[in-house]
Design goal:
six-stranded mixed beta sheet; 10 strands; four-stranded antiparallel beta sheet
């Protein structure tokens, strides 16, 4: 086989079968490396499960009852991993050194048997590169890469099993993406193998040039060949650089495509924001009367639902259940088709933005309070969130801008200013579900208009639940629910409900008349 044919040849297992003679002498080390690595894979996907249970059962609930048993399990698994790592590294290092030594010895013995024809057509540099560099790479593959491949398969199977039990939707998405990733890998690896062989061939030429330059130093000086040999060497290194760049470019295409597939898989399983109340009844722990009775509701992802009604009708109870501030007495609250109780509160709250009727700021600067929405937010993102709610005027009026202290509970700011900053903080978190619990009830008309214009922009693309005090703020909602005594008595758009002249019509017209009277009196 010519050099060109050798470089273009497809990947073959035949040479690796011949290598088995070197490996079989160290079967025990290989078995230890594979066995310890597979056990490490089991521990690797068991530890996150253990940690998630600790978070759900102890950290979120604020109790330590039964924590000792989990601590013993965790320490035991960590000690087991340390022991397996010691066995794995010792076995792999021994296997790498010994198999590399055996291959070098086998190459040396074989070189003694080759005819002079081989030496006439093969440069010394090429031979040295094969004997020294390539044997080291093969030994590394045998000792480290092969056990790691088996670890990868075991880990993937274990993770898929856990995912199927915890989130079948996520698992199925990964299963769908996997064949695409496999096809891309097979396609690009064929090309990368050829390019990698070309890189190695160029490196062999460089080694050969060094060898000839050293061995023929006297001849080159006698014949004044230095300049010519330098030019030839520059051409060789330029070809090696070109081969390396081509290999790098192919990897630069392959790796982002794999990352893109992973991103698509992740985005397909992110929270969409679909909410369902499935026959929910609820009684507050300190009350005896049911606030909700057999309540059912479907909120499509990305829609805006407004909840209106008299005080005590059960409006805030709905969002308390969505956010898991309380659990249903009976029935289920589903998020993306899955019972909210099956998800951790930490995960749920990280995907929900909540703006209360009574705004609260913590002691500290404006910037610190805004960063509670997202700790790693950049100044550009913070300023964009502030502009989105038209709160930049507040920052400009403060003596130290974003570094101004808001005081205890934000008492150095007005209620309207605190509400706007609370709103910016919620937006900064970029939640998939946005809950506004009568967020405009504590602000004046001008501030309300600022917030309303921001709401119309921000709620696009995310599920929004708006509990409204001023009904003028929910005219554009996709669905308005009129709640009375824990039940939906009317639902529809603003136009539909006004045309029916029912409870919503009476609430709206009464409020409109009250506001008109207040304006006349003022």
């Amino acid at each position: 086989m010519s050099r060109t044919e050798e470089k273009r040849a497809a990947f073959s297992l035949a040479p690796w079968k011949r290598l088995w003679r070197c490996v079989c002498q160290h079967r025990l080390r290989l078995a230890l490396a594979i066995g310890s690595n597979l056990l490490l894979a089991v521990a690797d996907f068991y530890i996150p499960l253990l940690q998630s249970r600790v978070v759900d059962q102890f950290i979120l609930t604020g109790t330590t009852a039964g924590f000792g048993g989990y601590a013993v399990k965790y320490i035991g698994v960590c000690l087991f991993e340390i022991a397996m790592l010691l066995v794995y590294f010792k076995a792999c290092m021994g296997l790498e050194m010994l198999s590399g030594r055996d291959m070098k010895e086998a190459c040396f013995v074989n070189l003694q048997k080759l005819s002079l024809d081989y030496y006439n057509v093969t440069s010394a540099g090429h031979t040295l590169s094969r004997v020294m560099s390539d044997t080291d790479r093969i030994a590394t593959c045998i000792a480290w890469v092969f056990p790691d491949i088996l670890w990868g398969f075991a880990y993937i199977l274990g993770v898929l099993g856990v995912m199927l039990s915890l989130s079948p939707g996520l698992a199925m998405t990964i299963i769908v993406i996997a064949p695409i990733v496999t096809a891309l890998t097979v396609y690009f690896q064929k090309k990368l193998i050829v390019l990698n062989r070309d890189v190695r061939a160029q490196h062999s030429k460089i080694t050969s040039s060094y060898n000839e330059g050293i061995m023929g130093a006297k001849t080159s000086k006698t014949l004044a060949l230095e300049e010519r040999l330098t030019d030839e060497f520059e051409q060789t290194t330029a070809q090696a650089a070109k081969a390396g760049i081509l290999h790098g470019r192919m990897r630069a295409i392959y790796v982002p495509l794999i990352v893109l597939c992973g991103t698509l898989a992740a985005s397909a399983t992110l929270l969409r924001g679909e909410i369902d109340f499935d026959d929910v009844s609820f009684t507050y722990p300190d009350g005896g009367e049911e606030v909700l009775t057999h309540f059912s509701l479907h909120v499509p992802a990305g829609s805006t639902v407004a909840i209106v009604g008299e005080t005590g009708a059960g409006k805030s109870t709905l969002v308390n259940l969505v956010c898991r501030f309380y659990e249903p007495t009976s029935g289920r609250v589903l998020i993306d088709g899955r019972d909210a109780r099956e998800r951790s509160q930490l995960w749920l709250h990280s995907n929900i933005g909540y703006v209360l009727q009574t705004p609260h700021l913590f002691s500290g600067t404006v910037l610190e309070n805004l960063r509670y929405g997202r700790e790693n937010a950049t100044m550009g993102e913070i300023e964009a969130a502030v502009r989105a709610v038209s709160a930049e005027g507040i920052i400009e009026r403060l003596p130290d801008g974003y570094q101004s202290d808001v005081g205890e509970g934000g008492n150095s700011l007005s209620t309207g200013e605190k509400q706007l900053l609370s709103f910016a903080r919620a937006i900064l978190a970029d939640p998939r579900i946005l809950v506004l619990d009568e967020a405009t009830a504590s602000v004046d008309t001008i501030t309300e208009q600022k917030i309303q214009s921001a709401i119309d922009t921000i709620i696009r693309g995310r599920t929004s639940v708006v509990i409204a005090h001023r009904l003028s703020t929910v005219r554009n909602a996709d669905l308005i629910l009129v709640v009375d005594d824990g039940k939906i008595i009317e639902q529809g758009t603003h136009e539909q409900l006004m045309s029916r002249r029912g409870s919503y019509y009476r609430l709206y017209t009464r409020q409109y008349e009250d506001e008109a009277t207040s304006r006349l009196l003022s």
